[in-house]
């Protein structure tokens, strides 16, 4: 195969674009697609301070790299989740990556700063690990963005992630979730602005980006991901994609352009009146936010874990 | 040729030469879900492997809370 842009030998083919690229043209293509998403959805401008949520995986490290290469001011935020070797390794990789590129990394540790870890939260509650984990991460990302005075929080959700979430939201017809599923969520009282600049990039392209630049990302999966329902949705979407290349991208982009508007109001209605959490001040519909409720429940049953190191 | 698979990491021996596309079909791997890395270099689907190549089929699908 030959590169679509320069006719040199290709290193990767992308069926949905019906194209193959050489190394340099592929890296250029990735930056172009991210730039396009940033502009199309008015995510942020050149003077904004961006906080990138980084996990040590391919998507977040590539996102951090691309934003920096495009000239944006982007710091990283890493959250230690206390998931055994997986967390230890992803922390080491993230720190090494930040140091090698001279990027600023902010760190928060669930075990040392909040007294619990994800495996404990999973076993002490009736929640699936990813549910406690997602809830904790969303809360801490938001808090770090607000406390640090950042203009916007960027996450590494890619096209495959978003298409899988969309499929889930459609299968259950969740109007509120559909109303909130968009590459940009504006800032609101107590909520930082959130953006997903990789929304036009396939998961496979992000891995290729890292491989071509020797970015040492965490290839091993989180041990708690197994059986996660989004993995099942990705499998379904990928078999569809194999039969009809471009299906995933069309599903997602036509939702953004033609479907999302119809659910916008549902997002507002479901949110309801907001108060401040008694403990941490975060917005909540009750008296205590979901994060503090989870944490209280976990640490009240596991006093030994308080202050435990990562 | 030696074929390295991940999650969990394992190695298998397959008789070459063979084109990348046929290898994926033979192992029933959806090309959307992996990168093809031959002797440490990323390669496209039409690459012809010889018997002494070392090939990694690296999965690219991540799970978790989205
Ligand atoms: S797979 Fe689940 S438990 Fe593991 S890091 Fe992702 S969200 Fe957390
Ligand atoms: Zn080229
Ligand atoms: Zn709270």
Which descriptors apply to this entry?
heterodimer; A: 310 residues; Rossmann fold; 12% strand; globular; B: 66 residues; mainly beta; Ubiquitin-like (UB roll); five-stranded mixed β-sheet; two-stranded antiparallel ribbon; 1 helix; binds iron/sulfur cluster
Summarize the structure in words.
The complex is a heterodimer of chains A (310) and B (66). Chain A has 310 residues and is of the alpha/beta class. Chain A is built from 13 helices and 10 strands. Chain A has a 6-stranded mixed sheet, sandwiched between helices. A two-stranded antiparallel ribbon of chain A has the order 1-2. Chain A has a two-stranded antiparallel ribbon with strand order 9-10. In chain A, helix 2 crosses helix 9, helix 5 packs across helix 6 and helix 7 (159-171) packs across helix 11. The relative contact order of chain A is 0.16. The model of chain A is unreliable at 303-310 (pLDDT under 50). Helices cover 11% and strands 38% of the residues of chain B. In chain B, the strands form 2 sheets. A 5-stranded mixed sheet of chain B has the order 2-1-7-4-5, with no helix packed on it. At the A-B interface, helix 6, helix 7, helix 9 and helix 10 of A face strand 4 and strand 5 of B. Bound molecules: iron/sulfur cluster and zinc ion (2 copies). One zinc ion binds next to helix 13 of chain A. Chain B: InterPro entries: Beta-grasp_dom_sf, Mopterin_synth/thiamin_S_b, ThiS/MoaD-like. Chain A: One of its GO terms (biological process) is tRNA wobble position uridine thiolation. Chain A: One of its GO terms (cellular component) is cytosolic tRNA wobble base thiouridylase complex.
Main β-sheet, spatial strand arrangement of chain A: 5-4-3-6-8-7
Overall CATH class of chain B: Alpha Beta
Number of helices of chain A: 13
Structural class of chain B: mainly beta
What is the percent of helical residues of chain A? 40-55%
CATH-derived topology of chain B: Ubiquitin-like (UB roll)
In this structure, how is the largest beta sheet of chain B organized? 5 strands, mixed
| Count of beta strands of chain B | 7
Small-molecule binders? iron/sulfur cluster, zinc ion
Could you describe the largest sheet of chain A, including whether it forms a barrel? 6 strands, mixed
CATH architecture of chain B: Roll
């Amino acid at each position: 195969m030959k590169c679509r842009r320069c006719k040199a030998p290709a290193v990767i083919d992308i069926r949905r674009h019906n194209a193959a690229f050489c190394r340099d043209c592929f890296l250029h293509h990735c930056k172009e697609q991210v730039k396009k998403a940033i502009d199309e959805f008015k995510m942020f401008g050149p003077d904004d301070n961006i906080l990138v949520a980084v996990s040590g995986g391919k998507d977040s490290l590539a996102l951090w790299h691309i934003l920096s290469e495009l000239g944006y001011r982007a710091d990283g935020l890493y959250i230690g989740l206390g998931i055994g070797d997986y967390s230890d390794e992803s922390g080491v990789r993230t720190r090494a990556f930040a140091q090698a590129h001279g990027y600023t990394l902010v760190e928060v540790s669930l075990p040392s700063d909040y007294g619990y870890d994800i495996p404990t939260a999973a076993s002490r509650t009736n929640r699936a690990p990813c549910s406690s984990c997602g809830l904790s991460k969303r809360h801490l990302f938001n808090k770090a963005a607000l406390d640090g005075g950042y203009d916007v929080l960027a996450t590494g959700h890619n096209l495959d992630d978003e298409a899988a979430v969309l499929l889930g939201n459609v299968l259950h017809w969740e109007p509120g979730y559909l109303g909130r599923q968009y590459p940009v969520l504006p800032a609101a009282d107590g909520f930082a602005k959130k953006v997903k600049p990789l929304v036009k990039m396939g998961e496979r392209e992000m891995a290729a980006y890292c491989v071509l630049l020797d970015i040492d990302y965490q290839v091993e999966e989180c041990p708690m991901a197994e059986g996660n329902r989004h993995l099942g949705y990705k499998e379904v979407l990928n078999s569809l994609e194999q039969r009809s290349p471009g299906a995933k991208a069309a599903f997602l982009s036509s939702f953004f352009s033609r479907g999302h508007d119809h659910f916008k109001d549902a997002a507002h209605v479901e949110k309801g009146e907001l108060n401040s959490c008694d403990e941490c001040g975060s917005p909540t519909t009750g008296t205590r936010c979901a994060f503090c409720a989870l944490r209280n429940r976990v640490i009240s049953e596991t006093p030994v874990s308080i202050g435990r190191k990562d | 040729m030696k074929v390295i698979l991940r999650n969990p990491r394992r190695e298998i021996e397959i008789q070459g030469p063979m084109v990348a596309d046929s290898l994926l079909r033979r192992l029933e791997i959806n090309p959307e879900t992996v990168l093809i890395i031959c002797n440490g270099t990323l390669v496209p689907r039409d690459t012809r492997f010889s018997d002494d190549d070392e090939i990694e089929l690296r999965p690219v699908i991540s799970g978790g809370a989205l």
